[in-house]
Fold each of these.
Amino acid sequence: MKLAPFATLAFLATLWFVAKLALEAIAADGGKIVAALQGRSVSTQVMCPVSVRFQPRAEAVRRPLRAQPEWRAAA
């Protein structure tokens, strides 16, 4: 019977915490959000080319595998 005030308090504390996290996220990325709403792009990262070497493995010589009658029966 006396649980309702504590449940309400827990609910309000959780609601306050979620609102605080949302406001911190908006404050951190507010410039990006405003730029996106205005149709502009904000470039904060410097793009530098990265060289990547690709060396394919040597092709292994594969011989066709001949199925044995026992294998066919098992399948």
Amino acid sequence: MSRASFLWNTDVDLGLSQLLYVLASGDKSVDPASEDLLANPVQRISECLLNAAVDIGQFWRQLRENTSKSGNLLTSPGPALVHAGCSELLLEGVQRRISGLLTDARHDFNELHPRLSEQIDLRSRPLRDRWETCGYGLVRRIERRFWGDEGSAESWGTGQIQLTMIQPARGGDGGADLSAKKVWMEAVLTDVDLHIPEVLRLTWLVTSLLMERSLESLDLSEDSREAYRLALLILVLNVAVEFDLISGELPPVSHAMKVWRVGHQDKADTLATWWDEYGAGRATLVTNIPHLTTVLD
């Protein structure tokens, strides 16, 4: 069984980078005061990126990823610019301008929310309490069903995983960062969805990271990795029913994919059909994932 341990913490800079990403994507935030504060710097940075022929969406995604790894928003623009295709000739000037805008935005944001880390910690307590009650059991059951009794002994390994809580930007979101050994989630006080509790989002993210770690050394195509992720998703939902975390009928797979922002919802019916034939009641799920890869193609 997995012997991973979990360390809870908060990260204000990562939450700010998530909020910047949400606003740059054109989505509405659940934090209108911060949205009003940051709308102008986001627009100015995006215009700067556009003028430098940099992939805007890629920059904001990479800025968030770099901040997750470093814990510091202000060290992240340079690598994000390089990753998003900024030319070497323009890099220094663009980085200087964007770093200045981010420095000012971060200062103003921290003034608006002077005790945010403490507030995030308090907001995350209900989720943390629920995780302590059922999270470890969920992970063990999912691991055993995914790999089988014989394969689970070393499948997800050991080591510490950070469970990093951030201030809500979308009102329910999260991600898994394998290289940083970190799962991050928006600290919402109540379940975002009536049918899928937030502890299941956390379970999905934790088991996704553990699975990716076990697959890291394998030469798998992106189609195969997608099949692994979707097989894990539908397994998490069904184990949740076994734990009485989902009451009544299992919600449509497409609904969970939408709530957790996983994959393309047009593949949900194929995934559900595969589960009925190859997943439900099977002691070992992993042996049937190659078939899922084929039918999803």
Amino acid sequence: MRNKEDKQDTHTSDEENQKISQKIGRFFHTETQKEKVLRYEDFDGAGDLYYAGVSAVYKVAQRALWLLFILFMLLSIVFNHSQITYDNFYYLIKDFSGAADYDGSYYETLSYESDHRQNFTLYRGGLASVSPSKISVFTATGRRTLNATTSFSSPFMESSGKYILVYDTSGTTFSIYNSFARVFTKTVEYPVMNASLGEDGSFAIVTRTAAKQSVIQVYNKNFKMKKMLELETGYYAFDIVLNTENNTLSVLSYDAGNGTGRTTLSLRDLDTLEEIEAVRFDGEFPIACGTLDNQSVVLLTDRYIRIFDRTLSEKESSGDYSVGNITGYSLTSEGVAVSATLSSQTMIYAFDKDGNRLYNDTVDFNVSDVGVYGSYIFLQTENGVKRLNSNAKKEEDRIQSLASGTGKMLIYNQKTVLVCGESKAEYLIFQD
């Protein structure tokens, strides 16, 4: 009797499983959905049978996509549950407002509190400024999304598409901000001398210890320090560039060398900080290093611009501008440029984002700063900004000029420049 009941229970369970399987099959079967469409809609004619079939296919596809979405969300929660916190969710929702204006229109000027010690950077299509007492972030439409007090002595800032990193070269604190709030801060034992931000939110700073003149700390995107590199005694780190796309860290340093001074550019693995390649130049002083849009590595010294491939094999170099006095330089993913005075003229050396030579000549006016965007070279003078078109066929089309006040020049795009003064930033818009 017992065995008979068990058989009946098993048979009932099999039938229920079979019914469930049939229902799931009908739920994702196009013919079943087609029949429902024909049953509940007023279809007439063979043509409508075709459209009923199309409707059924889209209905099944919609259900499949919803199922995949639910599965994706469940897996995301399982594998990233430690990152799902109130603070992170709050930052995500609030940060939408700052990103929404990324490609919007912009004002002719942006006003902020006056301070001659301010430092500026472009951030998410807008502007960020920091002074010893305040940090501000403006969107491209002129809306201030962050207006916070700070306590820095000599603040500098770096930016990426995700964050702003502010560090104090006369203090020991650095902080990470997004478009509306501070999200991380830390105080180290010695001053922070340099920093670099990755596009994924990871970053690195340069500080020192009692025994070493330069120590590099690398942090992951969750603000946890994952590696530390101590440079050899006698080596001073002048610049670092964290490249998450190539998973490398470029380190520009200086030491006594053979007595005339030596510049070293080292390319290191971002996970292990082991050296991959290095190049050294005696008798030169380091200024900056960086990465172009095509991932070429750039070294800027007091004598030359050098462009390398990913293995630090040299591809291009400028002329020797040490015969003049450097008045300005710029190194971004859009290109690299240097201006240097020579007698009554100014030497201009410029390369574009692919490492191609844009300009290698002189201009007959003084230049205080220089930058590159596309095929254009921007030259800041005492009266404003001049835009030099390296592709112009006619002399009259070669240079355009716009008047402005004095301040830090930031290149927004190939036709727009910001000049950031003590109390306001001016947008200068050149004609095509």
